[in-house]
Amino acid sequence: MEQFLALPDGIPSADTFRRAFEPINPKVFERCFRRWVESIAEATGAQVIPIDGNTLKGSYDREQGKSGLHLVSAWSSEDRLVLLLLKQDGKSNEITAIPALLELLDMAGCIITIDAMGTQTAITSQIFNAKADYVLPFKGNHPTLSGQVKNWSEQQLYQVFKGIIHSYDKRVETGHHRTEKHQIWCVPISQL
């Protein structure tokens, strides 16, 4: 803290911070904070905004039978800043939390990414109607679509994408005591 503020008498106690923050109206603070975040987002322009839900580690209470605090967030990859954060009752409510979070977010011109749980028709429509792009995965939550894309992709790989407009990228990442190989083929929807 000393790098930001001269504190000749030392760092104030937790009680001092509590007394300083108690009078702040949370609604007014939230409104001001959102304006500040929006001004940063406007300055950087279009960007990638991952939406993700996570349970806060250690936030559960076994004695009272309460599950952990689940939060859904919108993250600015460019600015390395949380744009929005919503509290949810549980992980199962993430599908309802994502539209609420997107409603509060100015995402025009941005690319929104969400994990497979958020790959829902209503969520996709909401992003599209806000004039944003999206990258959404699908797997077991959409078995018919997943099967169709898998069959089509296998056929195109066998034919080396002959006559199909596409781009390809390959990355090898090492971390968490493992090596992961990622291959991505991008194909315009009109080619499917």
Please provide a brief summary of the model:
By secondary structure, this protein is an alpha/beta fold.
Helix content: 25-40%
Coarse shape:
elongated
Q: How many DSSP helices?
A: 5
The secondary structure category is alpha/beta
**How would you state the average pLDDT, rounded?**
84
Radius of gyration: 22 Å
Provide a descriptive summary of the structure in words.
It is a single chain. By secondary structure, this protein is α/β, with parallel strands linked by helices. It has helices at residues 14-21, 26-44, 94-104, 121-129, 143-158; strands at residues 48-55, 70-76, 81-88, 111-114, 133-135, 167-175, 178-186. The strands form 2 sheets. It has a 5-stranded mixed beta sheet with strand order 3-2-1-4-5. Strands 6-7 form a two-stranded antiparallel sheet. β6 and β7 form a beta hairpin. α3 (94-104) runs parallel beside α4. The longest helix is centred in the N-terminal third of the chain and has 19 residues, at 26-44. It is elongated and about 70 Å long. The N and C termini lie far apart (55 Å).
